[in-house]
């Protein structure tokens, strides 16, 4: 039932947007987009996902999972594929947990590894956005700018609190809080040295920076010729909204958020919608290697 609601919400938002906009103009914009920039964006997005697979492999290695990088590379792209075709943006995470478990890992430890990978990625996105906001604080209306920054700081604070829970044994006593305690312990174990912390944060920021560069290329292919820093300010809040499990792979929510944010700086909504739809297509294309990996998997269902 929940999946039908998400699918329905995505369909409703996209349908509403299509009803309100000149679809012929959006379609023409997509057809006129620079093919060279779109191909470059596709390769940059694939590079971003490859580095993300490497970051995940480092996390799992620290948790004593001994698989070669090729295993995590294939699993990550299969997960990306399922993120695009399942009614939630975390369906691929469930797949990765299942695959690691099928290859001899404990389900709980596999869950912690994938969850930590998600959180570290989120921290990278938040830091990148805050850094960009410090350079372009006049880009958006003051109230919107401050609201976004307060949300970013609050999210970072919440994540750091999660990482510190292991210092308080009381959280281990109760079943409800034990999960957070154990998760915090894994954080401490993985990031016990400054080298590991800086390495993981650096990779996370690079991963999201490459994704922003891909969107930057797509935007310029349709005529949104804003500087990269403008994309670094505007895109992350929209990406954060797609993480919420309220739509089908972020469709609809992403389009609505990007249109609202880019219109604040005077960008034509038809161009933004064309960019967002093309980005969605790029995400699907960049995940297609996962289909090949899935079809050639050793396990029947993995």
TrEMBL record:
Membrane disposition: Multi-pass membrane protein
Record carries keyword Coiled coil: no
Domain of life, source organism: Bacteria
GO cellular component term, pick one: plasma membrane
Major location category of this protein: membrane
One Pfam assignment: LPG_synthase_TM
Record keywords, A-Z: Cell membrane, Membrane, Transmembrane, Transmembrane helix
UniProt-annotated location(s): Cell membrane
Cited InterPro entries: L-PG_synthase/AglD
Regions crossing the membrane: 7-27, 33-56, 110-132, 144-165, 201-222, 228-251, 271-295
Cytoplasm keyword on record: no
NCBIfam families, A to Z: flippase-like domain (TIGR00374)
Record's protein name: Flippase-like domain-containing protein
Protein species of origin: Hydrogenovibrio crunogenus (strain DSM 25203 / XCL-2) (Thiomicrospira crunogena)
């Amino acid at each position: 039932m929940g999946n039908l609601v998400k699918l329905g919400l995505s369909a409703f938002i996209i349908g509403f947007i299509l009803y309100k906009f000149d679809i012929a103009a959006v379609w023409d914009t997509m057809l006129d987009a620079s093919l060279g920039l779109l191909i470059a964006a596709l390769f940059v997005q694939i590079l971003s996902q490859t580095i993300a697979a490497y970051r995940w492999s480092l996390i799992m290695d620290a948790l004593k999972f001994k698989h070669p990088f090729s295993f995590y590379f294939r699993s990550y792209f299969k997960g990306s594929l399922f993120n695009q075709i399942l009614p939630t943006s975390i369906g691929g995470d469930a797949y990765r947990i299942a695959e690691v478990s099928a290859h001899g890992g404990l389900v709980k430890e596999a869950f912690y590894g994938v969850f930590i990978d998600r959180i570290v990625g989120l921290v990278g996105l938040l830091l990148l956005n805050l850094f960009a906001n410090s350079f372009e604080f006049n880009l958006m209306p003051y109230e919107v700018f401050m609201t976004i920054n307060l949300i970013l700081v609050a999210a970072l604070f919440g994540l750091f609190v999660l990482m510190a829970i292991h210092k308080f044994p009381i959280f281990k006593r109760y079943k409800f809080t034990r999960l957070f305690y154990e998760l915090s312990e894994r954080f401490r174990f993985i990031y016990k040295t400054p080298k590991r912390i800086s390495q993981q944060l650096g990779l996370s920021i690079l991963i999201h920076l490459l994704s922003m560069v891909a969107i930057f290329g797509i935007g310029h292919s349709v005529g949104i010729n804003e500087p990269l820093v403008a994309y670094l300010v505007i895109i992350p809040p929209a990406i954060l909204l797609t993480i919420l499990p309220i739509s089908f792979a972020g469709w609809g929510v992403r389009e609505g958020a990007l249109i609202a944010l880019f219109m604040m700086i005077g960008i034509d909504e038809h161009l933004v919608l064309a960019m967002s739809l093309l980005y969605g297509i790029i995400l699907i294309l960049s995940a297609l290697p996962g289909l090949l990996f899935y079809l050639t998997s050793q396990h029947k269902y993995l």
